[in-house]
UniProtKB/TrEMBL annotation:
Superkingdom: Bacteria
Pfam families: adh_short
Protein name: SDR family NAD(P)-dependent oxidoreductase
Gene3D superfamilies from the UniProt entry: NAD(P)-binding Rossmann-like Domain (3.40.50.720)
PROSITE patterns cross-referenced by the UniProt entry: ADH_SHORT
Annotated family: Belongs to the short-chain dehydrogenases/reductases (SDR) family.
Keywords in alphabetical order: Oxidoreductase
SUPFAM superfamilies associated with the record: NAD(P)-binding Rossmann-fold domains
Length: 253
């Protein structure tokens, strides 16, 4: 896809993978709308890249509709949508205090899976109304899964289930939108140096690095962003989930 001067939306764009993706897209001449719950963060990133910042709750239909309307008013309908908003709340099915509260499981599913779908359905509706580019493409949607979708550890049941759902929706969505020239992909990151991970105790960080084969370090957010750009650039990437993990395979716990 030719992306210069195209519009894009990036959820979770106030920090981590989302912020770095917003920066990478802006450097390529893309007009980026940065969506996040954190008002200060979304404003700061948008100001840095010359984009527009919109406070958005991905679990709310009304909030996402309003956010996409604001982005559309600023930049026009988006040809690129990148879903990075998510949480990694831990919890065993049955822990020391008994069964996991159902609302704890539901909250993770609501943010990571339903939130991704919520943004995808509305972004795709806008893309369907766009004129195709010369190669027939109307848009690209990139969702964020996780290696937990395949290697979920003890205590990751909600997170793994939510990210497994994100990975699984890529193919049926890609098949649905294929006749209209809209591609859908997912990236499954391994251990990346985001605020969520960097806040862990040093011994935990050391163990994460130890299990990553090569490169023997945490992934860099800009490496995730480069993968997003590669997906957008390569029209044969469609309907799949790409592991971006340095060959790590998570142990049971």
């Amino acid at each position: 896809m030719l992306i210069h001067n195209c519009a894009a939306i990036v959820t979770g764009g106030g920090s981590g993978l989302g912020a770095e993706t917003a920066r990478a897209l802006a450097k390529q001449g893309v007009k980026v709308a940065v969506l996040d719950l954190n008002q200060a963060a979304v404003t700061a990133v948008a100001a840095e890249i010359g984009g527009v910042g919109v406070v958005c709750d991905v679990t709310s239909a009304e909030s996402v509709e309003a956010a996409l309307a604001a982005a559309r008013e600023a930049h026009g309908p988006a040809r690129i949508a990148v879903n990075c908003a998510g949480v990694a709340t831990p919890g065993k099915v049955v822990g020391r205090k008994g069964p996991m509260p159902l609302e704890s499981f539901a909250k993770v599913i609501q943010i990571n899976l339903i939130g991704t779908f919520n943004v995808m359905r509305l972004a795709a509706a806008d893309m369907l109304g766009l004129e195709p580019q010369d190669n027939g493409e109307r848009g690209v949607i990139v969702n964020t899964a996780s290696i937990a979708a395949f290697d979920g550890q003890i205590g990751q049941v909600a997170y793994a289930a939510s990210k497994g759902g994100v990975a699984s929706l890529s193919l049926p969505a890609a098949r649905e939108f294929a006749p209209s020239g809209i591609r859908v992909m997912a990236i499954a990151p391994g251990y990346f140096g985001t605020p969520m991970v960097n806040g862990m105790p040093q011994e935990v960080l050391d163990s994460l690095v130890a299990s990553t084969l090569f490169p023997h370090r945490l992934g860099l957010p800009e490496e995730y962003a480069r993968m997003v750009l590669s997906i957008i650039d390569n029209p044969m990437l469609n309907g799949s989930t790409i592991r971006l993990d340095g060959a790590v395979r998570m142990p049971p716990a």
